[in-house]
Specification:
mainly alpha, two-stranded antiparallel ribbon
């Protein structure tokens, strides 16, 4: 450093020899290298949890291999919660992370200051270790998170998938889709169901049936009738494999409804009749009433009013006997 015109500056020959970061990521990496080993590890664990993380999840990661106390009723006093809080405060002072307000969990919540900070932190822990960590995070989040919260279900799905638990990830995505649909987010629900459909294995036929049926409904609502039919047809095949009459009837009913909308009334009528037989065989009177109601609507559109009225009356009688006024409306 030299003085020039009353000001201090780095000498030009020295300046050219300095190793400056090439970009913003390099700047963050350079700051990362100044961290103490302990703080660096904690930041790496936070990177595995995600852009948003919780001290409780970081503590769970550190305790995953701690042996159980030999004294009944006693737990290990490791002072880890206090240490974690102090480390997070230091990382906040270094402007890697910040505390945030959120209602997703009833826990103190932190986030990385930017996606770049999270991406750099994610490089600290090797991939082989990260996969094992995701198992612990999924377990912690399952215990502490609200199962009715969309963000929580999506995070559970992400950690399950990253730990190689694809069937579990598919189930979480399916549950998240149900929540998204309830919150009037049809595009989000369709996205989550599509993801679930790609993750679920053929070995879990019951879960695959539920996903295929709900995916068909979401596709139908989005106007993608042919894709919906394909999804309902897969659900029908799975019901046939499992010899589940009511599931098969549900799939046939939805196929018939799509075909009614398309105007292919002959095929729709055949599938309504097939669904009706399966509902009757399984003793599902509510299902029988639902088929009669939809069959009546199709017959009315065709101009077959007498047959339609007979079908409506049968549906009305069944729902009245069941006390199901909602279906009557």
């Amino acid at each position: 450093i030299i003085e020039e015109n009353g000001k201090y500056k780095i000498a030009d020959d020295t300046l050219w020899e300095l190793d400056w970061p090439d970009d913003l990521e390099g700047v963050v990496l350079a700051r990362l290298n100044t961290l103490a080993a302990r703080d660096r590890t904690i930041l790496g664990h936070a990177g595995v949890v995600g852009p948003v993380f919780w001290p409780g999840a970081l503590v769970a990661l550190e305790r995953r291999h701690v042996e159980c106390s030999e004294q009944f009723g006693a737990t290990i006093r490791d002072n880890l919660t206090f240490e974690m809080d102090r480390a997070l405060e230091r990382l906040e002072a270094m402007r890697f992370i910040r505390k945030v307000e959120t209602r997703n969990l009833n826990q103190d919540t932190w986030s990385f200051r930017s996606s770049l900070h999270h991406r750099v932190a994610s490089t600290i822990i090797p991939d082989a270790s990260s996969s094992r960590f995701h198992v612990t995070i999924e377990q912690w989040l399952r215990l502490h998170g609200d199962a009715k919260n969309l963000f929580v279900q999506e995070e559970l799905a992400r950690h399950a998938e990253l730990s190689g638990q694809n069937n579990k990830a598919a189930t979480y995505n399916h549950q998240a889709a149900v929540i998204a649909a309830r919150e009037h987010q049809p595009d989000k629900a369709l996205q989550l169901l599509t993801k679930a459909d790609t993750l679920i294995s053929d070995d879990d036929a019951p879960a695959r049936f539920d996903i295929s049926l709900d995916l068909g409904l979401a596709l139908e609502k989005s106007g993608r009738a042919q894709e919906a039919l394909a999804s309902f047809h897969e659900a029908l095949h799975l019901a046939w494999r499992l010899r589940h009459e009511r599931h098969g009837a549900n799939a046939l009913l939805h196929i018939a409804q799509v075909q009614t909308t398309q105007g292919t009334f002959d095929k729709a009528g055949q599938h309504y009749e097939a669904a009706l037989r399966l509902y009757q065989s399984s003793g599902d009177r509510s299902g029988v009433g639902t088929v009669c109601l939809h069959l009546g609507k199709m017959l009315w559109v065709q101009g077959r009013h007498d047959s339609a009225e007979q079908s409506f009356r049968k549906a009305e009688r069944i729902f009245s006997e069941l006390g199901n006024r909602k279906s009557l409306a």
